[in-house]
Amino acid sequence: MEKTELFQSNNTGYLYAVLHIESGYYCMIANGEKESIRLPSPLDPSVHDMAHFRDLPLLFERIREAHAGVEFVPFSVRRKDDSQSPMYVERLKRIDDHHVLLQAILIRKAPVKLAPASPQSAWSSPFFEHMEEAGVLLCTNGEVMKINSAFTKEYGWTEEDLVGGILPYVPDDLREEFELTRARLLAGEKKINLDTVRLKKDGTRVPVSIRAYPVFDSDGRLAGTTAMLISKESAAATQSLIQLQERIIKDRDQLIVDIMENTDLGVGQYDYIRNRFIYLSPAIRGLFEVELNEIYVNAFAFQKYVHPDDREKMADVLCNPDSNGEMDFRVIVPGKGLKWLRTKSVPIYDDEGRIVRLIGFTQDITRQKFSEEISLKWEKLGMVGHLAAGIAHEVRNPLTAVKGFMQLLDETGSAGDYAEIIMDQLERIELIVNELLMLAEPHEEDEMRPADLEKVLSEVVPLLKAEARMHNSTIRFKIQGGPLPAVCKTDEIKHVIINLVKNSLEAMPDGGTINISAWTNDGGPVIEVRDEGIGIPEERLTRLGEPFYSNKEKGTGMGLMKSFKIMERHGGTIEFESEIGKGTTARIRFPIDSETTIS
């Protein structure tokens, strides 16, 4: 394509050119050739040869801004020969990394059609008068038509000083810049942004940012120009204050976020206007074992693992925030067991007293609940112990008398063939009474002695294996090498082990394997009894050992209660783990005693 002058329009009246953003080389294209654009080369003309040298900085500035994606503002460019018509650039579009497409039109082939001169009082605008920026309105000949009160406040001049005259606030060294800016507006440019300097009435130079626009009358004729001026000093002070406020707000918000993001207290905020959660702290995920995105999508997703008996109460708190704002509830996660949570809700009201949001604070109170239940359990055991002691003493006194007289009858030979049977039953009753007394405080004559738990287990396991064969089950016994020292009453420990093994046998109606193992760790000796039985539901595990609570149809719970009492006196514990259909593990823990020696 032949070289074409930048200011020569094509058959549509528009100018189209491809420009190189660094060098200014360009090639013109006809309207029909836009689909096959040719890129310019050094053999093509340059805008330096065609455009007015005073307009070149603006031209290249707008080219670079458009290429970088900045919002484009139309502008005008004069020819090198200032007497010829300028062009008005309507569009600059990025083509690639080095080129833009220019679309323009010649904006004047004849003098600008100006509106007839009108007196200053004919123009009025409440917006112009009351806006915070200093504003000035000029006639097309450059005379001041009007200024606003902000201009007077900022620069000191009044309307009486300026109206009808030429603005005296332009420094002499910037007069040419002022006239060039005004000429660009008169040439048709829609908006000019300019950073420059202006004078106050007292002669003080003030750095300002100016936004200038053309003003048209109702017939579309150019009636004048207007400019709004912002002092860079006041703008900088305002911007500094804004930045300081933003930094304070950001620091405060970051502090709140840091607290919320790193505390184990779960915080959630529910919006009743949008009917969804608008904030959930990371701790919520660990408390409810539910991903936060699930709850954001579905407000009730957090109830996935909440105990069925507690869900209705939780829904009532969320749907009726005026109800009791604090509740304890259970969460059961498959494979992780049961935990207790406590949520306290605080409603947020608007100016009309309506609840618009609800903030909930949730914490894990499993340990607290466990401690409360343990305390209650031991309290019950203590009550049963005192009751058992009273009953035992009441029964033991007449029992002793009956036993003594039976012995006398037997010595005289008058008891007949039933003496032995009666004595056996009386001894059995005495044994039961002694076991009742065991629930109370230990007897003074019962002393704990150093013992080897390996030996205790070796004595009791053979007896239990025989019992297991009767239930079509087997017992496997595994112990670490070497002794397992502990201070205990061996008969009572045997009783605990026998009770746990019998419970395991009854939990395997179809038979199975019971594994008994023992070892020592940093906390002291441990004995473990593990079965393959039907398992115990999670909610029942915490109640094991309570008086009169049993998983057996006709059980009284006295066996486990007695075992718990024995281990309490030994300073140890009994722990249970269970999974439905896979079995139960009972773990007996003894306290560590560095002075233990086996006799």
TrEMBL record:
This enzyme's EC code(s): 2.7.13.3
> What taxonomic lineage is listed for the species of origin?
Bacteria, Bacillati, Bacillota, Bacilli, Bacillales
Histidine kinase domain spans which residues? 390-594
Using the record's annotation, list all stretches that form the PAC domain. 325-377
Q: What is this protein called?
A: histidine kinase
Q: Which reaction does it catalyse?
A: ATP + protein L-histidine = ADP + protein N-phospho-L-histidine
NCBIfam families for this protein: sensory_box
GO MF term set: ATP binding
Q: State the UniProt keywords alphabetically.
A: ATP-binding, Kinase, Nucleotide-binding, Phosphoprotein, Transferase, Two-component regulatory system
Q: What class of enzyme is it?
A: transferase
Q: Which residues form the PAS domain?
A: 141-164
Q: Name the InterPro entries on file.
A: HATPase_C_sf, HATPase_dom, His_kinase_dom, HisK_dim/P_dom, HisK_dim/P_sf, PAC, PAS, PAS-assoc_C
